[in-house]
Write a structure and sequence with these properties.
Layout lengths: L1 E4 L6 E5 L4 H18 L4 H17 L1 H12 L3 H26 L2 E2 L6 E8 L2 E5 L7 H12 L3 E5 L5 H13 L7 E3 L4 H7 L5 E7 L2 H13 L3 E5 L4 E5 L5 H13 L9 E7 L3 H13 L19 H16 L3 E4 L14 E4 L6 H4 L6 E7 L2 H9 L6 E5 L3 H8 L6 E4 L18 E2 L4 H5 L3 E8 L1
Parallel strand pairs: 5-6, 5-8, 6-7, 8-9, 10-11, 10-15, 11-14, 13-14, 15-16
Antiparallel strand pairs: 1-2, 3-4, 4-18, 9-17, 12-13
Length: about 450
């Protein structure tokens, strides 16, 4: 059985029977049939449905937000924001999808040459639990706008969210089977890649999952896009606005209770401002309210699963054992729920778990750099390359140093975030390919050359 457990109470919310092979086969066939008709629709038709989907999302934001909070512990105010952002990405592609996929005429020696963007077919999405609506819609909106069909294998602990998303597509009057959920364990999801109906795969998840799915997709010669983990640096230089940097740093480390691939995790501070930043940062973190995620005043909810809390606590303990200093937090609270307090480690260096690994929870690792060049060196001293944040009052310096940071995105004087208008993705062990913007919608299309005469 697939179980949905409330991480704040540790009580089982619901149990789901995994789909039988016959049920999976039926859904694959329905997706294929739906795609064949959907690919012939106009951009105007697709745009109208996506806008309707956004309307349905907004009309059901209460139930969607409450379900997210119950299934994975997201603070309720952030859950509402996630629903609104999911509606935004639908409206964004409804407005801009045709523009992004309009054929391009190219002058050659032929009578006419052009590039057109045709849908690939059925795309399998393997999605994580930490943003159970946003992660799905940032894949689904461009995929269906491009004329594809989508099959969702969501994380098992948010199966209720997965089923609700399928219901939303139905309520928005998309063709039956164009977007559907598959309730399956991970190993059966990987096997789906072998099916000829599946033409491409998108994954947001762990490095382990990325390697397994990439290997399987490669054996089947199928396109993949992967957004994996991150250990994002948050670099504060001596000339930065320290007050603004501290405020942003607290949000960047604790949004979604710290459970975000693009959360700031390693705080690299130029020596002359390290003490000032650290004192204000710790004070602000310790003032945050941890508790019931269903309460609007709550700023830190539980981690999504017991094993995640155990892994995070082990990373903190190992870092302290190898020389890091614990400034606050670092202790498991009593009582029910998978809560973990905001935690700050200082004197963190390469070779420590908090520096080398992704910490998925409200744990901040502070490292002091002697000067600017060393700060950039520390920022790049990681196998990850998803996002980075850089703080300086010199904007020319910001442009120059952003070019030197190895990451898929660099935000100067703000924290890293995803935005439908900007391409999103990583390099190195953080994955490959891009989501969102024009680059995202073109990942799952056939870039077709046509030359006539």
């Amino acid at each position: 059985m697939i179980k949905s457990i409330n991480p704040a109470t540790e009580k089982v919310i619901a149990e789901y029977e995994p789909y039988s092979e016959e049920a999976v086969d039926n859904r694959l066939q329905m997706a294929q049939v739906a795609h064949q008709s959907w690919r012939g629709t106009t951009f105007a038709d697709r745009s109208e449905r996506l806008n309707r989907l956004a309307d349905v999302l907004e009309s059901r934001k209460d139930s969607a937000a409450q379900l997210m909070t119950a299934e994975m512990g997201k603070p309720i105010t952030q859950a509402y924001a996630e629903v609104e952002k999911s509606a935004w990405v639908c409206r964004f592609y409804a407005e801009h999808g045709e523009e992004f996929l309009t054929s391009r005429t190219i002058s050659t020696d032929a009578e006419k040459s052009y590039v057109r963007y045709d849908p690939l077919g059925v795309v399998l999405a393997v999605m994580p639990w930490n943003f159970p609506f946003w992660q799905v819609f940032r894949f689904a909106a461009p995929a269906v706008m491009a004329g594809n069909a989508g099959l969702l294998k969501h994380a098992s602990n948010v199966s209720g969210c997965a089923l609700m998303i399928e219901e939303l597509f139905t309520a928005a009057d998309f063709p039956a089977g164009l977007f559907s959920t598959l309730l399956l364990p991970a190993e059966r999801a990987e096997q789906l890649i072998d099916r000829p109906i599946i033409r491409a795969v998108t994954l947001t998840g762990s490095e382990r999952a990325g390697r397994a799915i990439g290997k399987r997709a490669g054996a089947n010669l199928k396109k993949t896009v992967q957004e994996l983990g991150g250990s994002d640096p948050f670099v504060v230089l001596a000339d930065a606005d320290i007050g603004a940097a501290v405020e942003a740093a607290v949000t960047a480390r604790t949004l979604n209770s710290g459970q975000s691939c693009i959360a700031a995790k390693r705080f690299i501070l130029e020596q002359s401002i390290a003490t000032e930043f650290t004192d204000a940062f710790v004070e602000k973190l310790m003032s945050l309210q941890m508790g019931d995620p269903a309460e609007e005043a709550t700023e830190i909810g539980p981690l999504a699963r017991q094993d995640l809390r155990e892994d995070l606590h082990s990373q903190v303990a190992k870092s302290v054992e190898t020389g890091a200093q614990l400034l606050c937090g670092g202790e498991l609270p009593a009582g029910p729920g998978f809560f973990y307090p905001p935690t700050v480690l200082t004197d963190v260096t390469s070779g420590m778990a908090a520096f080398d690994e992704e910490t998925f929870g409200p744990v901040a690792a502070l490292t002091v750099a002697s000067q600017e060049d060393e700060a950039i060196q520390f920022a790049n001293q990681t196998r990850f390359g998803l996002g980075a944040s850089l703080w300086t009052s010199d904007l020319e310096k910001g442009h120059s140093l952003a070019a030197k940071i190895d990451a898929g995105a660099v935000f100067v004087n703000s924290f890293t975030k995803s935005d439908p208008r900007l391409p999103f993705g990583g390099i190195k062990d953080s994955g490959y390919g891009r989501e969102l913007s024009s680059e995202g919608i073109r990942e799952f299309v056939n870039v077709k050359t046509v030359s006539v005469g």
